Structures are given as structure tokens and as C-alpha cells.
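Sequence only, no structure available. Ideas?
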Amino acid sequence: MKSFLNRYSIIILIISLLSINLITAQEEGSLTIQSSESIKNIIAKKKAHNKNTTKVKGYRIQIFFGSEQGAYKAREEFKSLFPEVYLKVENFPPDWKVRVGNYKTRLEADRALVEIKEAYLGAIVLPELIDVKKG
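Reply:
I predicted one. C-alpha cells follow.
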């Protein structure tokens, strides 16, 4: 009985090794993608449209909402703490808002918010049209 099991085990082992070798032996090939002229035209139109686009949907962080004096004070404080971050002051009568950043995704804005909240506890992320970086 043991010799039968031994032979059986050896046969299974050999078959397994051969099948693994067959599975992993693949040839390299080439891939050719063909597209129609209409698809190429659509892509060209989209590229031309994107070149003229200056604003896209994104996010900014609002660090202040209130009086004009408070807005300009918040602007100066923020500039000293985060000199590299985009900042804008807006007037929505009778209130003023200070919003910062040009974040393409909510995740990107939330990551920046963690750092900004250390200085501005009331900071919140808001959806807004943001400026497109031309490069």
C-alpha cells in the first residue's frame, strides 16, 4: 500500500511541475490599436477645449467668514503661516470670506485641512470652481 501511495505521490508531483511550467511559459507579443478618424477628431476637439478651460470643479478651504477687517487680518496671518498656498478674499455683502487652495479632489483638500485646522479651527472644505494650472 505504501509503494502505491509513493508512486501516486510522485506521479502527482511530476504532473504538477509540468503544468506549472506550461502555465508560466508565455510568449511576448505585440499589440496594435487601431482607431477611426472620428475618434481621433473627438480627441482633438477635447484637447482644444481643455486648452481654453481656466476653471474646473474642485475644492477650497474656507478659513474665515465675517467682517472686512477680520478677512484681511486672516489673510495676513495665513500668508505668514502658509506662504506657498493660493489665497483669495471675496466679498459677499455684507460678509467677507477667505478661501485657500486649489484642490482637484476632496481627498487632497481634506489632507490639507488637517494641517490648516491646527491654526484655523473653524476651517471647512467647500466645493468651488478652481483655477487650472497652465504648465
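The chain has four helices and four strands.
Hope that gets you unstuck.
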